[in-house]
Design goal:
The chain has about 100 residues and is mainly beta. It has no helices and nine strands.
């Protein structure tokens, strides 16, 4: 069973609790890095890079044997337009 819950919402930042088969992980999107954005898993950066000239639209990483994709879109006025989390090809969260 996979459950994803939004825990925190700030300007260009989102924090989620992702539970996969009874194991819980904190997944964070950080988009305020002034040209650098990243995704953190349990406080450690695991995917990201330089976002020139615009924001990186997709981050891919693994949690154990599970393939995770976090897709994010940002408005020109620098707010999150949409964010989607996919686990093993199944959408588990979208805004």
């Amino acid at each position: 069973m996979i459950v994803c819950k939004l825990l925190e919402k700030k300007w260009l930042y989102r924090k989620f609790l992702l539970t996969i088969d009874g194991n819980s992980y904190h997944v964070e999107y950080h988009g305020r890095g002034a040209g650098y954005e990243y995704v953190a898993l349990d406080g450690n950066a695991i995917a990201g890079g330089v976002s020139q000239p615009w924001f990186i639209p997709s981050f891919s990483f693994d949690i154990e044997q599970h393939k995770i994709v976090l897709n994010v879109r940002v408005w020109p006025w620098l707010t999150v337009r949409s964010l989607k989390i996919v686990v093993n090809g199944v959408e588990v969260f979208t805004i």
